[in-house]
Amino acid sequence: MAKMVVSLSVVPLGTGSPSVSEYVKKATAVIRESGLRYRTGAGFTDVELDSYQQLAELLEKMEKALAEMGVQRILYTIKIDRRMDKELYIEHKIAKAEGI
């Protein structure tokens, strides 16, 4: 059961390189290891969550993993689609948008 779909982007700063793919892979691995349903896109990763607490815990885990890689600063961009009346799923949102 998911009550929100969170689209998030994690941009590490202070890495000394313009490439961020290794850091993005690590952040995605944290999501995968959490057992949450997610879908990675070109610029954002969508994650199905039930609470803001889950989001905070996920961000803390990502931050720890990236800090272990030497990241000194992280820029997060977060978009939250929150439903209080029914469940919300990534696949349903995509199907509606694509007319499937």
From TrEMBL:
It holds the Pfam family Thiamine_BP. SUPFAM superfamilies: MTH1187/YkoF-like (SSF89957). It comes from the Archaea. GO terms for cellular component: cytosol. Residues 6-97 form the Thiamine-binding protein domain. InterPro entries: MTH1187/YkoF-like (IPR029756), Thiamine_BP (IPR002767), UPF0045_domain (IPR051614). NCBIfam families: MTH1187 family thiamine-binding protein. Belongs to the UPF0045 family. This is Thiamine-binding protein domain-containing protein. It comes from Pyrobaculum neutrophilum (strain DSM 2338 / JCM 9278 / NBRC 100436 / V24Sta) (Thermoproteus neutrophilus).
